[in-house]
Amino acid sequence: MADLATTYLGLELRNPLVIGACSLTMDAKGVKKCADAGAGAVVLKSLFEEQIRMNSSGLDNSLAAEEQWHSEVFEYMEADIGMQYGTREYLAVVSSCKESVDIPVIASINCVSAEWWQEYATEVAAAGADALELNIAIMPETLTVTSEEIEERYVQIVQTAREAVDIPIAVKLGPYITSVPQLILRLRQAGGNGSVLFNRFYRPTIDPNKLCVTVDNPYSSPAELSVALRWISLLSGKIATDFSAATGIHTGLDVARALLAGARTAQICSALYMHGLPQIGRVLDELEQWMETSGFATVADARGKLSQHKNPGSELFGRCQYIKGLVGLE
Ligand SMILES: Cc1cc2nc3c(=O)[nH]c(=O)nc-3n(C[C@H](O)[C@H](O)[C@H](O)COP(=O)(O)O)c2cc1C
Q: I need a labelling partner for 316 at 20 to 30 A (CA). Which of 110, 131, 193, 225 fits?
């Protein structure tokens, strides 16, 4: 039988399937269900920096201050309004989740600045989190802010977190970054141990009949995995960070794709909302079957097989345009 065990952020996982931060992992009950269904690890639903900021400044805990908030936060808040944590409550969630399962529990903080939450990160670690995932999503708010300034904020956030905690840190990024390689390298140098590529933001759309802005399908499709595969394949083996593929992982073969690109783990959310928690078992069965048919005895045997690092001549993931597709790929 194929051995699905892997390591991620220095943690031992029984398999590479990680449940991504979402409402399925918002409390010990949900986390236990995921573990019982076979998950290798869980990322808890994020605590939003805005929540920490509100608690420490004594602001009214309502959406009244919404205009000061990052738009993504507001959308999550609006969608999940019944399930937002207070900061104390989050610490209690971390410890109760740790007590209820024996798989790694990764806490998640959604942050847009390096202020406010340093002390809080220490408390999250003290509550027993095995690692911290920083979901950083900085929206360029003005016409004057430069790419360098924004990327510097990412780096400062990771430096601040590194000073605050000893546990491993992963950074979850969105795909809208100009130089993904350099930013990931800088985040590694700042003390990050892992890169989660990529977050899927809530997508606004326009209802042309009701003449209003509304939210598009909150769930991904498997086709969206291509973005993570490209960057993980290009960077794994070149930067000493643990990659976790996210967005578009729906099946065992999607996990296989992520491993072949060079990921250590693959995070899943949408497929669980769409098919229920038994999908975890189906994904793992399919992964194991694929490993056996392909002759991979361990996850490490498959990891990075199709990365550029191991296939230096391959340009497939490096091209942005279609010309090669039109004239035929070698
Ligand atoms: C209902 C819902 C809530 C989510 N909440 C969070 C969150 O609190 N923090 C976070 O980093 N990502 C959050 N996400 C994003 C997921 O963790 C994941 O990155 C994204 O859904 C892409 O993965 P998928 O294709 O498997 O769905 C949420 C997603 C959904 C659908």
A: 193
- Of ligand 1's listed atoms, the one at least distance from the Cα of 225 is 25
- Name the pLDDT band for 112 (thresholds 50, 70, 90): confident
Our CA angle for 218, 223, 227, nearest 5°, is 90
**Are 97 and 44 within 8 A, CB to CB?**
yes
The residue whose CA is least distant from atom 10 of ligand 1 is 21
265 lines ligand 1 (CB under 6 A): no
- C-beta atoms surrounding 289 within 10 Å: 14
d(CA 51, CA 71): 14
Residue 258, ligand 1, Cβ within 6 A: no
Cβ atoms of 222 and 245 within 8 Å: the answer is no
Strand pairing partners for 243? 195
CA-closest residue to ligand 1 atom 27: 270
> What's the gap in Å between 216 CA and the centre of ligand 1?
14
Instruction: Calculate how far, in angstroms, residue 269's C-alpha sits from the geometric centre of ligand 1.
Output: 6
- Number of Cβ within 10 Å of residue 12's Cβ equals 12
Q: Are 13 and 40 in contact (CB under 8 A)?
A: yes
- What crossing angle do the helices spanning 180-189 and 225-235 adopt, rounded to 10°? 60
- For all residues of the chain together, what is the average pLDDT? 87
Q: Which residues contact 133 (CB under 8 A, 6 or more apart)?
A: 21, 43, 106, 107, 108, 109, 169, 170, 171, 172, 196
**Domains of the chain from N-terminus onward:** 6-327 (3.20.20.70)
51 lines ligand 1 (CB under 6 A): no
Q: Is the pTM of this model over 0.70?
A: yes
- Tens of pLDDT, residue by residue over 211-247, are 999 888 889 999 999 999 999 999 999 999 999 999 9
The reply to whether ligand 1 has any atom less than 6 angstroms from the CB of 270 is yes
269-305: per-residue pLDDT in tens?
999 999 999 999 999 999 999 999 999 999 999 999 9
